[in-house]
Specification:
The protein has helices at 29-43, 75-78, 83-101, 118-124, 152-160, 162-171, 178-183, 193-208, 212-226, 230-244, 248-258; strands spanning 5-10, 13-18, 50-54, 56-59, 65-70, 107-111, 114-116, 128-132, 136-138, 176-177, 189-191. The longest helix is centred in the middle third of the chain and has 19 residues, at 83-101. A six-stranded mixed β-sheet has the order 1-2-3-6-8-11, with helices on both faces. The protein is an alpha/beta fold. The two termini are 33 Å apart. It has eleven helices and eleven strands. Residues 23-24, 26, 60, 66, 71-76, 89-90, 93, 114, 116-118, 121, 140-141, 144, 148-150, 174 line the site of octanoyl-coenzyme A.
């Protein structure tokens, strides 16, 4: 049951919010299942063209408000796992993050606080990462006696390059700042916390205003291309480009451009 993940729809944008602050939004097997359920639910919303994934906040024991995107996989649950359980957890969490990476619409991670271990891995499965200025990044796994298990040993190097990825993973440092994440290309922008969701929404709406089928095909082509040779990838691009000409939105978008009438109504695609 989806008790700790909330889905909210705002126009053509869905916001998926993780609310499991008794463990700083740490991801247990149940939390991964809830995340999957949330994305399955959004997947059924035909008029959602962009998704924002974010975390929540709580007042801690010292009375201080703390924000977390996801502070990692659930260490309490992992602490007693057998080899078989560990393999299942790794594979299953990878499966969920793969679904997010390949979700038919772009997913923006709005990183509002701790973004550690499995949280950083989750964020890396998203298309675009935005961070608040208080956000903290890291892959602390080797400090717990484990390796990253949800794409960290693979996606991080692809995003920030080998040297930085190896530094982050080998040191287990959990306090890379939003500014450092920006400098290494792990996030696209850093905003004051109070502006993060507005900025994420602006970006999501900007994306959602484009031809949705074309955006989805771009996502697919970029993802496919990142793991294949250039010749095959360009062939794939040629095919999806051709596919666009079967859509109403291509005809509409080009006719709209060619229409010189100054009073024409605002552009609105149909996802057809
Ligand atoms: N797992 C379980 N519980 C957690 C986690 C976590 N990752 N993070 C925080 N909590 C719990 C704390 O134990 C605490 O519980 P309680 O109230 O019962 O004592 C509660 O959340 C609040 O946390 P703190 O009191 O520690 O809050 P602070 O503000 O002092 O500190 C931190 C916040 C810095 C985020 C701190 O909690 C922390 O260091 N957390 C752990 C960070 C970490 O090491 N993450 C990596 C985990 S390993 C991992 O993600 C492996 C990925 C593998 C892939 C997925 C599947 C294979």
């Amino acid at each position: 049951a989806m008790t700790d993940v909330v889905v909210e729809k705002k126009g053509h944008v869905a916001v998926v919010k993780i609310e499991h602050m008794k463990a700083m939004n740490a991801l247990s097997t149940d939390m991964y299942a809830q995340l999957e359920e949330a994305f399955d639910e959004v997947g059924k919303m035909d008029d959602v063209y962009c998704v924002i994934l974010t975390g929540s906040s709580t007042v801690n024991k010292k009375g201080k408000t703390v924000n977390s995107f996801v502070a990692g996989a659930d260490i309490a649950q992992m602490s007693t796992m057998t080899v078989a359980e560990g393999k299942f957890f790794g594979n299953d969490s990878n499966r969920v993050c793969w679904k997010i990476e390949n979700f038919k619409r772009p997913v923006i991670a709005a990183i509002n606080g701790f973004c550690l271990g499995g949280g950083c891995e989750l964020a890396m499965s998203c298309d675009i990462r935005l961070a608040s200025d208080n956000a903290m990044f890291g892959q602390p796994e080797v400090g717990l006696g484990i390796t990253p298990g949800c794409g960290g040993t693979q996606r991080l190097a692809r995003i920030v390059g080998l040297g930085k990825a190896k530094e982050m993973i080998y040191t287990a440092r959990g306090n890379y700042t939003a500014q450092q994440a920006l400098e290494m290309g792990l996030v696209n922008y850093v905003y004051p916390l109070e502006n993060l969701m507005d900025e994420a929404m602006k970006l999501a709406e900007e994306i959602a205003a484009q031809a949705p089928i074309a955006v989805a095909l771009c996502k697919e082509a970029i993802n496919v291309g990142m793991q294949t040779d250039l010749n095959s990838a360009l062939k794939f691009e040629g095919n999806v480009f051709g596919q666009c000409f079967a859509t109403e939105d291509q005809k509409y978008g080009m006719a709209y451009f060619l229409d010189k009438n100054k009073e024409k109504p605002a552009k609105e695609f149909k996802n057809k």
